[in-house]
Amino acid sequence: MEAALMLVSLGLDPFAERVYRLLLTKTGLDVVLVAQELAVTEQQVQEALEHLTELGLLLPSWESPGGYRPVSPQVGLLKLLQHRQAEVQQRQKQIADAETAIAALISEYSELHPVAQHPRAQSVLGMDAIHRQIERLGMNAVYEVASMVPGGAQEPSLIEAAKIVDRQVRDRGVAIRTLILDSIRNDPPTLAYAEWLVDIGAEVRTAPTLPIRMLVYDRKIAFLPLDSSNTQAGAVQVSDNGTITAVLALFDRIWDAAIPIRTPLPKDESGLLPQERQLLKLLAQGMTDEAAGHHLGLSQRTVRRMMAGIMERLGARSRFEAGLRVAEMGWL
């Protein structure tokens, strides 16, 4: 099962894998014979062959003009894995760039604090008022609601309240794109909520860290916390073009680098999950276990368990020794 999931993460769907395995074990098969062997249509086989060719797992046959020969797994699958690893590194760089961008955005917002008088900004104080405004904006959305939700596992009561709005939004044909932390994959209630969102037609992706909570409606209105470290302090609703452009650029950059909720998280060339690599970076910056866990949506206990696993892989007896080995191996 795990091997099948890994091949899917490399871009090889289950049916194409069946065709590839068959061609590896039997020679001299053409489209007709493959279709007969697998009890499928010739069109399905042709599409799978084209897909395998695009992935570099099939090459034109020297012996049978118009036919194919399979590339050995040692060559073809390793090349796909290396390509996937390069994509992971690029995603991690994009997320790091996004964090830098949001820091600048938050700095700009600190100057807007008395926002109530701003013609294109409206402050909303009090949790009840915030939730009423979120419901109102959701009901008025025409084509898209995009959200970024840091903080890890969600309270069951908040999930049930969110479901009501989400269902009403989707029933009107409005698209939903949601970014949440990788850590929710290990929290059954929040993961079930994310799966439910996908089932009703929403798109959900995860990232190791998310810099700020935000909601963006129809790419025209953004709903942001007044204080990113205390979302209960209040929120600001903004619609000026400059701010919306910056917020959308940040959201889209992280979205492009994030992993769909139903896709297994890929490991990089060092065997690290994105969340593990981000943990090492945060601790290397001097953060405590508690602070790093807050950024990743993890408890201190989980952070310590993750570090224990990394240390075991490194053969390190202390965090100091682990830090030295991480530096030696170029993991950061």
Automatic annotation (TrEMBL):
GO terms for biological process: regulation of DNA-templated transcription. One of its GO terms (molecular function) is DNA binding. It holds the Pfam family GerE. Keywords: DNA-binding. It comes from the Bacteria. SMART domains: HTH_LUXR. Residues 266-330 form the HTH luxR-type domain. This is DNA-binding CsgD family transcriptional regulator/sugar-specific transcriptional regulator TrmB. The lineage of its organism: Bacteria, Bacillati, Actinomycetota, Actinomycetes, Streptosporangiales.
